[in-house]
Structures
1.
Amino acid sequence: MSQDEILDELADILGADRAALTPETPLSAVTWDSMALLAYLAFLRFRFGKVLPGVSCAAFRTVGDLLARCAP
Amino acid sequence: MTCFRGLRLEAVSVALPAGRVGVADFEARYGAERVGRLRRAIGLGEIRVAEAGVRTSDLASAAARGLDLGGVDALLFVSQTPDAVAPSTAATLQRRLGLGEGTLALDVNQGCAGFTVALRLAAHLLGHPALRRVLILGGDTLSRHVDPADAATATLFSDAGFAALVGKGGDDAWAFATATAGSEAIAIPHGGPFRMDGTAVFNFTISKVPEQIQGLLTPEVDCLLLHQANAFIVRQVARLCGFGPDRAPCDFPDYGNASSASLPLLLCDLAARGWRGRRQAVLAGFGVGLAWCSVRLPLDFDAAIFRPITEFRP
């Protein structure tokens, strides 16, 4: 998946305007709550076969932090 | 996966109570900020609420009005809110609808997975040559059971009734995957209000449901019709299965979560919005139990199977 495609998916998970979403966007500016975290973790598991045990919302500060984990 | 052949979905119809509760009403009750958050988070819109005294069977029998019930040998009534603990609502509906004494009539205690579970039960029953057609009735009146002070559940569910007829004929294949994981994460205790552990249910939904759906997907599947739990869940499950909103439609903002009537309502709504042609679909129901049941089957939107939605007035 390209970074652009991943950002499309993250915009959906974060309820954010895709055009305004960049790796620098702080997660405090979007909907980053327990539901979004679970949706993000499911995305990682289904698309990249990756499991992140025991993480909380506080472990991520920016969209770039989310992007960084989006790899097999 | 469990496969069946020679089944035909003959009719699907839905009755909704006329009472509408929408964003303005919710704002008056819970405040604009709370409601604004729910609109952004889950797509909160409008729900339907039955008038006092209206029972689930009233909505379900209204949905059955106008259907040809000849040859119905079994009646399944799917609900978490039957008219009474006993007798079964199926028994009272057998008489109300004028079905013969020889009808097998039973209640199925299911919520949001109820429509697909009942389709599977109908498929099993129709495997016997003595049974000709199965009438599935169901729905819920959850507005009686939610705690009005709990905005998260009191804004979510629509009261609704549905009817579906399953018969024999054709050589279409239906493939089911069904699962249950005993859990009280969604519950209506005796005397207590409806309660739901939203985070646990969401976590279950976005892991187990896409896995089950993926097991049924073939290249021919061109639409994914999901129980309308809420708009966020629909989008997430669809995305994880590789379906965009055009092929995994969402009507939650228009109707809320109609429990077991949600999938029949989506089918009738899509037909009313102009969906046509033959489709290979996966239908997925998931909810209280926790239970999740999906089916791959062909749907003919040209055959007038999916009836216009009727409005119920007592």
2.
Amino acid sequence: MIDYDKIVTEKARSIKPSGIRKFFDIAQQMDGVLNLGVGEPDFFTPWKIRQKAITVLEKIKTSYTANSGLLDLRRSISGYLDRTVGVKYEPKDEIIVTVGGSEAIDLAIRACIGEGDEVLIVEPCFVCYAPMVQLANGTAVTIETKLENNFKLTAAELKEKITPRTKMLILPYPNNPTGAIMTREDLEPIAEVLRDTNIIVVSDEIYSALTYGKDHCSIASLDGMKERTILINGFSKGYAMTGWRLGFLAGPQPILQHILKIHQYAIMSSPTVSQYAAVTALEECDADVQKMVDEYNIRRRYLVSAFNSIGLPCFEPEGAFYVFPSIKSTGLTSKEFCERLVYEKRVAVVPGDAFGECGEGFIRVSYAYSLRNLKQAVKLIGEFLDDLKKEREGK
Amino acid sequence: MTQLLELLAKNSRLSNAELAILLGKSEQEVADEIEQLEKSGVIKGYTTLIDRAVENPNLVTAYIELKVTPMAESGFDDIAKFIAQYDAVKSVTLMSGAYDLGITIIGENLRVISDFVARHLSTIDGVISTATHFELKNYKENGILLCDEENDERGFVSP
């Protein structure tokens, strides 16, 4: 008989399943769960974009594109980055179109990280960075951000973790799960720390279109930073195009020429229909995005106010579509809170520690749901808190 | 449309306190803004969106095209206002193109509507002709889909 344990590498076997995944597996087995755990927009992809895809299919544009993506799309991305973050990238060799932001992250890590390299990961954060670093034989070094700093990275926290082996900083803002953003003023001290180093920044800006009240700022736009930044973005969140699997990375040509080889061998080229549709997204859909942002903003204000008023203190997020209230007052761990909430009230939210140890004591609540659903969920969470209180008093 | 109006258009039962939270304003600011909108006639009232087909499946809605001879001085206004007086008439609109007034009527059954057209509308001075269209199914009203249930197709997907 074949021994699969001997087939699969030790490295692959040692990768832990993500904390979100584990929790979803519980929620998925139950009926009628009000699920506020999902990290994808509830809006439909704007009709103009879908229409474009239909036309492309009718015209049978279904072959591979250039490895780095349709030139028209790379031009549109270049224009988009210029007008949104004020950085100019050459469409020819400074932009690669990828299969979602996820592939872009994987490519950047695989191309730059090897045995013994340290990668600074700012937590709480999206769950994929550390496992990918691990697969690349690198060492993930955590930087824990703090509620009292509004979950922003500070220069002091960064400096403390830099060693001669530090090769990369992954900067995930606007942040999933906290909703924190980094303004130009917040980024400047970080850039100052990095300017004299040989550390490359991977700036994961997948939520850049979703900020509230303040415009997104990319670290690549700061003096001297474009040359040491790989900027990652995509269409999933801002344009509600998760299933289209399209993202991109932009950065220095000397790095991208090698990244392109990995992309060529692994992927060939990103989905063609999605690429044509993405040109429409970038060129014609600003108003659609603004409409979604306005709607998210309404829900954000509602949730922050609602959580604060039911006794779960909630820091005011300025980006993405998550709020990150503290559940420390309940005396439960994040996991206990979330498991009991889903079993007892059928509301699914994600335990904060799924995004790093410093997320313990918090829960991530997505507001990619209608206001009606959010209100219902808050009501049920309120009831759950009352039950917990009675329980404590009864003891 | 302002965000305040959009919220009210979707749900006019939102209280000023709720609107204040959703819009990031003070309750007083919201109250002042609404008062101003009422005074200036932007807000005409607060209604309920009823799916009549669910409430009473027998009800019939008709859209009637009316050709009219405009009157000296008042033009179409007097006839339009005259027609608007009937309770059964839900909307009256002056249109450009092949006909002049577009009217929506709701009645208990087909007979009631055809009686209304024959006895009340056709007989009005100045009405030249009528064309009645019966509504078969209403899909969307006031920007709200009536026929689709909210259906979240997103799965429990994550890395």
